[in-house]
Design a protein that fits this description.
Layout: H1 24-28, H2 35-50, H3 60-69, H4 80-89, H5 104-109, H6 119-123, H7 146-149, H8 159-163, E1 172-175, E2 178-181
Antiparallel strand pairs: 1-2
Length: 185
């Protein structure tokens, strides 16, 4: 989900997203903005480097407490540059988090972690991807784990609701230019 015209780090209050990637300001309900995306990027980088989300717990309340308190363990095998970018993304003050401020994306691209990245080559599609999937059709699923493709599809749309006059999706609301999720938990 995304919102348009978010120009700061405090002007929205939606509580939505994958719990493991939520920034503390979302959990605290203190208002948030684009800096939550940089926190989430840090969480994705951490997971790609370690195989697990940074604040992981099976217990949702413990997960949120870990995020709010900054309880994170960095494996010893992480490089100095990896540690640096993760610590820069996991700054609790969104205004001081890597990526915030007027030179935000420039600061990220210039971070030592990305020292070997030629951003112009990426933008101009001059870098050959290390893996190009060979698919037979648009519906070819051979690269998707069977755990997911073997699941029986479940239709969340119930046409009986329309017959009974219920045209509203439970838990969602629409208000002119804003769409948000209303937490049911």
């Amino acid at each position: 989900m995304s919102k348009q015209n978010i120009l700061d780090n405090h002007s929205t209050n939606s509580f939505c997203g994958t719990p493991e990637y939520l920034a503390p300001e979302i959990i605290n309900g203190s208002g948030h903005g684009k800096a939550v995306d940089w926190w989430s990027l840090g969480a994705i980088i951490y997971e790609m480097l370690t195989g697990m989300p940074p604040f992981y717990s099976k217990d949702r309340e413990k997960l949120f407490a870990n995020i709010k308190q900054g309880n994170i363990k960095y494996p010893m095998y992480l490089s100095k540059d990896s540690l640096a970018i993760l610590k820069d993304f996991f700054v609790h003050d969104p205004d001081k988090r890597l990526g915030s401020g007027k030179d935000g994306i420039k600061n990220i691209k210039n971070h030592q972690f990305f020292k070997n990245i030629n951003w112009d080559s990426i933008i101009n599609k001059k870098i050959k991807p290390p893996f190009i999937p060979r698919i037979n059709s648009d519906s070819d699923t051979k690269y998707i784990d069977k755990e997911f493709t073997n699941l029986n599809p479940v239709d969340s749309y119930n046409p009986q609701d329309l017959l009974e006059g219920d045209t509203e999706y439970k838990g969602f609301s629409y208000n002119k230019d804003k769409i948000w999720y209303l937490s049911q938990t």
